[in-house]
């Protein structure tokens, strides 16, 4: 397969008449005339009539678009409109690299014209084969960007695994060149390619894009989820961020977010369009685990007090550092950028040096030659169950009882398996002791602890106290079993609608609590949505005739028969500013008053702010 001539490549982006004419002559010379699509293919080059569409890539943490992948299409009326037909024709004609070059130019032109925000990135596909050949022209992409007023850090070079690579060493050199120039490099279609972990480990990409096959239906079985989880953990251990491609359902989105994926791309969040879309036309599902579950992650076990060593320091230097910190049994190996390289196990390290001639043979070597380059590394958001499973799978590695925790591909801290076992034991005890048996939600003790923690940390937060109106008449009329079903429905509804990071608890009976640190305007919107959703869901528990007349006849607390409307949800909201209250009991007292006021309000909710005069110091 041919390589683009250097002079043509370096000047194509400038579109100078003479150089472009030379480029066209080169293309015309290569395309065999006997191919049925030769004329249509040459027309694409002659008119530069490629269409670029942009599909958004979304940051799962910030819930915003961080860039777009440029997708190339042929001319609309051409038989080569479909990208598969277009690139197949170019491959058959021997001008695949030339088409790749033209597609890059068109994408960068459109991006430079349409996008003004400097923090957004363009993801452009580059043929791996083009970079893995000795004739690859360095500097062309950089020069094109300069002509368009763009910077290298605005571009991510996507390398596809879908074609075999003959010379990975040459590819690694090209990738290193791009990274030194300020570009980020992504490995595309991971899991579906020819070269697997070898190309991954050798080129050390900044991002990993997991093929849509492993994302599609990830919520419907354990095999894909386990594979995806392994890929995410492996990527993070290499210091790379992860993009999940082909996310098309909310269930898939929920799973990839739980597994620590950094970015997502797919029809659920945005289809390709001719103009880069900066806003996501999607309402995020606001189901969230309780705060207790959110704390049960590897990040909660990470301690940063451990001595770390650098991979390029000499063994004799590392030994001296270790002698000065003799209480440690392990030492994470981390470079100055925070990327994790491995682990030094004190016992193994010392045994090797104390062997005959061990010190003389190894003392001047870089530490990286003696480290364990496969320690257990987990993302901070990984559930402790995942960490426990990795420990079980690693049971044969004796004396290696520690793990490393990373955040955004960088070292966060380390922990021991003794810490893990202690936390898991405590969780089992607390879950059984404090969870409400009907809903499974945290009960009074965790609720009080969550309120007190926010008071101690001087946080601004809101407490939502929910209560059911006309629940007792329903219970008496329809049975306690039906009443329990309503309670479980409320628990499910609150968890599904709560805002990200909110804590949901069950005080008992039909009383629930949500603790939220979101702005009060968002809390009020949540309250209105909860009341509306409950009103819709509650009708399912009544007979059709009771729904039609808007309520039921039942005995009131005075023993008299009267009419009770359908159940409604009332919510009292207490907004707490920092420093006004020091104990959770005062919060409980004030929010109870707010709840009672909500039951009298025609809107079924009230919002009250803590007044300095009534706050207890």
Comma- or semicolon-separated keywords:
3 domains; alpha/beta; flat; Alpha-Beta Plaits; disordered N terminus; CBS-domain; TIM Barrel; five-stranded mixed beta sheet; 617 residues; eight-stranded mixed β-barrel; single chain
Task: Report a brief summary of the structure.
The chain is an alpha/beta fold and 617 residues long. The protein folds into 3 domains: 18-265, EAL domain (TIM Barrel), CATH 3.20.20.450; 298-422, CBS-domain; 439-616, Alpha-Beta Plaits (2-Layer Sandwich), CATH 3.30.70. The strands form 5 sheets. An 8-stranded mixed beta barrel has the order 1-2-3-4-5-6-7-8. A 5-stranded mixed sheet has the order 15-16-14-19-20, sandwiched between helices.
Describe, in plain words, how this protein is organized in 3D.
The protein contains 23 helices and 20 strands. It is an alpha/beta fold. It has three domains: 248 residues, EAL domain (TIM Barrel), CATH 3.20.20.450; 125 residues, CBS-domain (Roll); 178 residues, Reverse transcriptase/Diguanylate cyclase domain (Alpha-Beta Plaits, 2-Layer Sandwich). It has an eight-stranded mixed beta barrel. It has a five-stranded mixed beta sheet with strand order 15-16-14-19-20, with helices on both faces. Strands 11-12-13 form a three-stranded mixed beta sheet. The chain is flat.
């Amino acid at each position: 397969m041919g390589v683009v001539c250097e002079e043509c490549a370096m000047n194509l982006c400038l579109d100078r008449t003479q150089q472009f004419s030379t480029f066209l002559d080169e293309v015309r010379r290569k395309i065999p005339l006997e191919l049925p699509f030769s004329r249509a293919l040459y027309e694409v080059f002659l008119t530069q009539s490629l269409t670029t569409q942009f599909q958004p890539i979304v940051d799962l943490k910030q819930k915003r678009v961080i860039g777009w992948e440029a997708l190339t299409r042929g001319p609309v009326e051409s038989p080569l409109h479909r990208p598969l037909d277009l690139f197949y024709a170019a491959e058959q004609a021997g001008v695949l690299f030339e088409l790749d070059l033209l597609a890059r130019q068109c994408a960068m032109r459109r991006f430079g014209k349409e996008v003004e925000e400097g923090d957004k990135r363009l993801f452009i596909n580059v043929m791996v084969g083009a970079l893995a050949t000795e004739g690859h022209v360095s500097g062309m992409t950089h020069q094109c960007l300069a002509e368009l007023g763009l910077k290298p850090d605005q571009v991510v070079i996507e390398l596809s695994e879908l074609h075999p690579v003959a010379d990975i060493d040459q590819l690694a050199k090209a990738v290193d060149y791009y990274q030194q120039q300020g570009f980020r490099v992504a490995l595309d279609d991971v899991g579906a390619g020819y070269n697997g972990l070898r190309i991954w480990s050798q080129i050390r990409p900044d991002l990993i894009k997991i093929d849509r096959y492993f994302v599609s239906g990830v919520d419907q079985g354990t095999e894909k989820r386990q594979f995806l989880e392994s890929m995410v953990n492996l990527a993070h251990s290499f210091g790379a961020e992860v993009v999940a491609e082909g996310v098309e359902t909310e269930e898939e989105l929920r799973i990839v977010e739980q597994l620590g994926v950094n970015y997502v791309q797919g029809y659920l969040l945005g289809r390709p369009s001719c103009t880069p879309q900066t806003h996501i036309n999607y309402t995020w599902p606001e189901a969230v685990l309780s705060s207790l579950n959110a704390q049960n992650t590897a990040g909660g076990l990470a301690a940063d007090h451990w001595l770390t060593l650098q991979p390029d320091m000499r063994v004799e230097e590392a030994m001296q550092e270790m002698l000065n910190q003799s209480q440690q049994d392990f030492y994470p190996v981390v470079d100055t950028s925070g990327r994790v390289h491995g682990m030094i196990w004190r016992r193994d390290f010392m045994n090797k040096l104390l062997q005959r001639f061990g010190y003389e043979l190894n003392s001047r070597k870089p530490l990286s030659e003696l480290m364990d380059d496969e320690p257990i590394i987990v993302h901070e958001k990984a559930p402790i169950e995942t960490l426990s499973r990795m420990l079980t799978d690693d049971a044969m590695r004796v004396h290696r009882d520690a793990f490393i925790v990373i955040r955004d591909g960088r070292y966060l801290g380390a922990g021991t398996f003794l810490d893990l076992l202690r936390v898991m034991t405590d969780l089992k005890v607390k879950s059984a002791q404090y969870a409400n048996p009907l809903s499974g939600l945290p009960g009074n003790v965790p609720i009080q602890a969550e309120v007190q923690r926010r008071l101690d940390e001087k946080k601004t937060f809101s407490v939502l106290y929910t209560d059911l109106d006309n629940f007792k008449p329903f219970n008496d009329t329809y049975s306690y079993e039906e009443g329990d079903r309503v309670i479980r429905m409320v628990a499910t509804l609150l968890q599904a609608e709560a805002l990200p990071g909110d804590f949901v608890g069950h005080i008992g009976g039909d009383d629930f609590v949500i603790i939220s640190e979101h702005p009060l305007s968002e809390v009020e919107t949540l309250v209105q949505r909860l009341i509306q959703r409950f009103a819709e869901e509650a009708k399912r528990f009544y007979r059709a005739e009771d729904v039609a007349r808007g309520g039921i006849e039942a005995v009131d607390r005075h023993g008299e028969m009267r009419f009770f409307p359908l159940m409604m949800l009332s919510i009292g909201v207490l907004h707490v500013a920092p420093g006004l209250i020091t104990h959770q009991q005062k919060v409980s007292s004030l929010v109870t008053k707010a709840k009672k006021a909500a039951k009298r309000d025609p809107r079924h909710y009230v919002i009250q702010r803590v007044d300095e005069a009534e706050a207890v110091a």
